[in-house]
């Protein structure tokens, strides 16, 4: 649990929680509110993860694995729920793709690079990684199908059928996610394995209190963040697609990203790979389907129809992730290649016109 504090003192960023609140209440500059809210979410997400680990340390590996699989992407889920409420569907879809890309290319790339530079060739359990990689390819296919049929549905004006397709796929993905958690807890491998075991330092009431407070903080900061997206996009000249694919996933997952890299440096590559692949699967099999059903509560319904650049980037990242996991070994050059691909993708989305 002390990994992040020793690494970057990330909790000092909590100072931006009151800063963002004051700026919002005083109708401050939108870009400043956006930046302060984003910086505030980072330590709050880390505190949520730390509290989850504390609870897991007291409840055992099975419950801990289940908590991790459920709350691993809670910060980003909260952000995207507020985006759904504001009708920012493009931002929500882009953040789904961006989270998967970030975990597979940025996080895995950094872990392989720094882990390889420190320890040379690193190995991990190939069986669990291949299972997760296979699930990832399946998830890509499931998310790509509504996108491929979107043009036909639009031409036929069959919007209700398109929504029904997304709902059906979402239900199937959630069932597969639940089954994968059961399987991983039984064989001690896969999604439920991404728990850092340590002796508990907090009492259960303290851990539950921190979890509740961090969640509440993320709720308010997410509302501030999402409320300034449109003016920030207009003022900075960024596209909503770029904010969703690159900015939002980094904000919500920085703490978890740093943990994966630190585990790789400590030559715990199996845990680092589980974090990277497992987080991607959580987004594809749990977060995205849940958002489909949550959107039914709002006026604008979420359909899993992504742009062609998003589909292509997701397919390429899923394939590359599966290739890396295939042989059970990694090195620093593989990490550098993944980072290179991520920078190329980020540059492409940054330069992509808004109308695309």
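Sequence proposed for the structure above (356 residues):
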């Amino acid at each position: 649990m002390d990994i992040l504090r020793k690494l970057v003192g990330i909790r000092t960023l909590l100072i931006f929680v009151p800063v963002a609140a004051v700026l919002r209440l005083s109708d401050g500059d939108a870009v400043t509110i956006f930046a302060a809210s984003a910086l505030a979410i980072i330590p709050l997400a880390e505190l949520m993860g730390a509290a989850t680990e504390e609870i897991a340390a007291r409840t055992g590996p099975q419950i801990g694995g289940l908590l991790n699989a459920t709350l691993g992407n809670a910060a980003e889920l909260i952000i995207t729920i507020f985006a759904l409420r504001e009708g920012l569907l493009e931002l929500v879809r882009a953040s789904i793709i961006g989270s998967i890309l970030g975990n597979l290319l940025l996080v895995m790339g950094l872990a392989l690079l720094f882990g390889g530079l420190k320890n040379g060739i690193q190995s991990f359990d190939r069986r669990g990684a291949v299972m997760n990689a296979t699930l990832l390819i399946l998830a890509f296919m499931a998310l790509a199908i509504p996108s491929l049929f979107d043009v036909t549905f639009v031409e036929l004006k069959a919007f209700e059928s398109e929504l029904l397709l997304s709902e059906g796929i979402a239900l199937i993905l959630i069932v597969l996610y639940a089954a994968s958690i059961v399987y991983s807890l039984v064989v001690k491998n896969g999604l439920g394995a991404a728990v850092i075991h340590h002796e508990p330092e907090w009492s259960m009431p303290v851990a539950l209190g921190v979890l509740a407070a961090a969640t509440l903080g993320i709720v308010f900061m997410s509302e501030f963040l999402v409320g300034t997206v449109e003016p920030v996009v207009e003022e900075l000249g960024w596209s909503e697609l770029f904010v969703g694919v690159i900015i939002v996933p980094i904000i919500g997952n920085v703490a978890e990203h740093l943990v994966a890299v630190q585990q790789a440096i400590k030559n715990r590559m199996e845990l680092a790979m589980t974090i990277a692949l497992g987080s991607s699967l959580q987004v594809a099999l749990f977060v995205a389907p849940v958002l489909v059903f949550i959107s039914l509560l709002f006026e604008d319904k979420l359909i899993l129809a992504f742009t062609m650049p998003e589909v292509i980037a997701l397919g390429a990242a899923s394939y590359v992730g599966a290739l890396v996991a295939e042989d059970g070994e990694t090195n620093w050059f593989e990490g550098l290649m993944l980072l290179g691909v991520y920078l190329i993708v980020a540059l492409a989305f940054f330069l992509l016109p808004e109308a695309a």
